[in-house]
Amino acid sequence: MGQGWTFAGEATQGGGDSVTLIEGSSFCLSERGGDLAPGTPQGLFHRDTRILSVWQLRLDDEEVDPLSVIAQEPYEALFLGRARPRPGHSEATVLVERHRFVGAGMREDLVLRNLGNEAAACRLTLRVEADFADLFEVKEGRVQPRGQYGVDYGDGVLSLNRQWRGESRGVRIVAEDAICSPGQLTFRALVPPRGTWRASVLVTPVIDGVETPTSFPLERPVEQAGPSVRTSEWRRSGPRAKVGDESLALTLRRSCQDLGALRIFDPGRPDTPVVAAGAPWFMALFGRDSILTALMSLPLDPQLALGTAQTLARYQGTRTDPVTEEEPGKIPHELRFGVEASLALGGTVYYGTVDATPLFVMLLGELCRWGVDPDAVRELLPHADRALEWVEKYGDRDGDGFVEYRRSTDRGLANQGWKDSWDGVNSADGKLAEPPIALAEVQGYVYGAYRARALLAEHTGDAADAARWHERARQLKRRFNEVFWLPGRGWYAEALDGDKNPVDSLASNMGHCLWTGIVDEDKAEAVAERLLSPEMFSGWGVRTLATTMAAYNPMSYHNGSVWPHDSGIVAAGLMRYGFTDHARRVAEAVLDAAAAFGGRLPELLCGFDRAEYAQPVPYPAACSPQAWASATPVYLLRVLLGAEVCVPHGRIRLAPVLPARFGALRLTEVPVGTAQVGVRVTEAGEVQVTGLPAGMEVSTQPCACTAASAPPSS
């Protein structure tokens, strides 16, 4: 889009001084003064549809000069502006307050404060338009009128709607004291000397004739509204961290706040939260993104991870549809609600992802390890088995033992791993890989899924099934290391192309292979050294592609940029294989980048070297906050603690390698099974653990189910 949008937990500015407010599946992208300008990507969006495309306030037909934006919550902002001087006056005397709350639409409280000694007669207008454009159209700059538009107005009410493709989208705007006409609300105010005037406007979405209940009704105090209550509960619950380094403390606070703001709730299941991929354009459930975020932030909120798994299971594929790429057992790539989704994705649920399905099984294994609601996890076992059936029947169509992808039509994503840009998979000479493509990290995810399913079988007392899945994992690991390892290069191929030739670029993907444990131990050191080489390590994290590769571009999306979540996974993989110094270098680099961004990691940053520029260079169109970037600091703290939990085997591993500059660390209320565990690490590195569940012990060694080496035969 050419602009970087930011998220206003406090007033943050991005390209064009934009401010974003967000709550659930509603978000508002505006100018710094609060207006939504025509002909821009700004607007109020609900469930992937722009329900306001213009929202411009004028006082006596004049623009209001913006002064400041104050936003304490992700969904709330106070826009302060100054009215132009009154006729015959040299100084402005009217202050304009626009107090905006976003959630299932929007509420805007308007206040005029007269700071003068004479009464001020004011004509306040709001210009209103709604194009009901789909989010995809807005994001890609291709909005055009579609269908039949209608308008209805009366005393204090203005309704706009559009009929298209058999569906109706509308918005109802209610302002008790306003004179409503097509495209405009008008207020006539007389503000006493040193006095105030107030009015409120409610904007509610209407979907197929059904009005969505507002999140901020006028008759209820704001602090009792649903978004306020959920935010307060999120901040009260979950683990607490006290750390000596204030920069790390700020980063952890921001990460937790952003993860809370990125939660979305299915109206039909309001008690089941899931995590959206990122603001503003990806406030939807994404298979890969949501699963990885849930895995990385599981100790923060196990119910968020469980809710994500349960929701994805409900949308698991049941039939074969080439247009949406649905297949039996497949976990979806993303869920969308706009009318345009059927054109852009083939349907509201799109399945064009190769990795979400094995990652789903890995998530169930991690839920089991942390002892999260065993009955709920057991209910998901049939979904795990269907996912693994997809892996072996549809994922590996040619029977070579590896999972590969090729889109079914020209409508879907050409690349379907996490590097899903059109040029995201290429050889050392820059040649694009031809499908079907078998990505290295996907084989690692399948290996992790097999081992997770073995653990789940052990947990339910099925030793024979556990042995079967362990054997599948061993076979895959052996074949992967035979085929993907490039001995002449000293690294793993990024992928196999359609002719089964290795895609030989030096890329970060093999760090994910360390993470899952599929790397042979005799090759791990070479992988670790490559990942921390000057070609790969920027000083702010690990690059997606080495500087020595032909396609390298530090300002690209996937060919040389640094993605915090990618580096977090690499750090965890390095720690898994015992490369603690390497892991700590990566973790410190990413946390330093977070500090440079004020505690909030963006989706990605440019891959320029730290020696070249003293500050990380932002990628201009990065989402911020973005789910797995927000989860990365939480995950890196776990990596630096060497923390792994396995409730089924009664073991907690803690082997901290915290940098000295972080000082002492104290964690409380960490959920492990039904217990709340406390962890204290002194500046000298001594570890104290309290509140352990009965039957569990603390060790510095990993459990067999999380160790890098293959488990023994069952």
From TrEMBL:
**Highest taxon of the source?**
Bacteria
What sequence ranges are listed for the domain Putative glycogen debranching enzyme N-terminal?
21-200
Record domain Mannosylglycerate hydrolase MGH1-like glycoside hydrolase: where: 289-594
Pfam families reported for this sequence = GDE_N_bis, MGH1-like_GH
Q: Which Gene3D superfamilies match?
A: 1.50.10.10
- The protein's name is Glycogen debranching N-terminal domain-containing protein
